[in-house]
Write a structure and sequence with these properties.
Phosphorylase Kinase, domain 1, about 20% strand, five-stranded antiparallel beta sheet, single chain, 10 strands, alpha+beta, 2 domains, three-stranded antiparallel beta sheet, Aminoglycoside 3'-phosphotransferase, Chain: A, domain 2, 8 helices
């Protein structure tokens, strides 16, 4: 992640454009969590709190922010609402969301947060999917060792990135899904499968993780062959990520993908 840009370090024209949408800003606090946005802050006004994220227009993140703005009307039942989008002002692109007061879930075995997380994934699986440029069979093709990616095709709306920082557990006990950088169209069981690899990385056995995934309606559409192929793709994906970015969490995800594939009897030759 780039170093965060503080509110008062933004260009005056951009702060004026944001204030025109929010009203007088009484307090601005930089958010430390998250990976990609140079600007991430909560802005407190006289009558509400707004979460803003932004990036300079010459940053690659402007593309993913455009995706977030595009998909938001379709995911509001499970995600914070986008209030406004400032494009190309003082060289910046900024999104303003309703602020959701919550905390990131605990993925450890036995965590009381797990039912809410699974319920959010299940609820997303019931939403209609708009026509999206990103198709899951294309995203994973390079990790399939030449295998046919068609089992990943489908018409479901997918998030695909279930790291704990991409969910918020709120006061009513439900979970909201945030950071929609890669909205994807694909087979409905893929999102529960993406979640289960994270659960394994946080201490679940593969059987325990699959049991949580099985609590979603989408999981019932999975075939053993499709899951085996997805397990292989995850090994390749996380090996690649960990190789290029050898942090503790990427190494844990690589190991988790390996454990899932091994539990399913999937061969992963070098």
């Amino acid at each position: 992640m780039r170093q965060r840009t503080e509110w008062f370090d933004l260009p005056d024209a951009l702060r004026d454009a944001i204030t025109a949408r929010t009203g007088e800003i009484l307090d601005a606090r930089t958010v430390s969590e998250g990976m990609n946005s140079p600007l991430a802050a909560t802005l407190r006004t006289t009558d509400r709190v707004v979460f803003v994220k932004g990036t300079p227009n010459d940053h690659a993140g402007v593309v993913t922010q455009g995706r977030e703005a595009m998909i938001n009307p379709h995911v509001r039942p499970v995600a914070p609402a986008l209030l406004w989008h400032i494009e190309d002002t003082a060289g910046w692109d900024v999104l303003g969301f309703e602020h959701v007061e919550g905390r990131h879930p605990d993925y450890a075995p036995g965590s009381p947060d797990l039912p809410a997380v699974v319920a959010a994934v299940d609820a997303l699986g019931a939403l209609p999917c708009p026509d999206l440029p990103i198709k899951d069979e294309n995203r994973w093709r390079s990790y399939l060792d030449g295998n046919d990616p068609s089992p990943f095709a489908g018409s479901a709306l997918l998030h695909t990135d279930y790291r704990p920082s991409n969910l918020l557990v709120v006061d009513d006990g439900t979970a909201r899904i945030v950071d929609w950088a890669w909205p994807t169209r694909g087979a409905p069981w893929i999102d529960p499968a993406c979640l289960l690899v994270w659960l394994i990385a946080f201490g679940h056995t593969p059987d325990q993780a699959e049991a949580h995934a099985a609590r979603t309606r989408a999981w019932k559409t999975a075939t053993p062959e499709g899951l085996d192929l997805f397990a292989l793709a995850n090994v390749r994906l996380w090996d690649d990520i960990a190789g290029h970015d050898p942090q503790d969490w990427t190494q844990r995800m690589s190991s988790a993908a390996q454990r899932w594939a091994h539990a399913r009897g999937v061969s992963t030759p070098s």
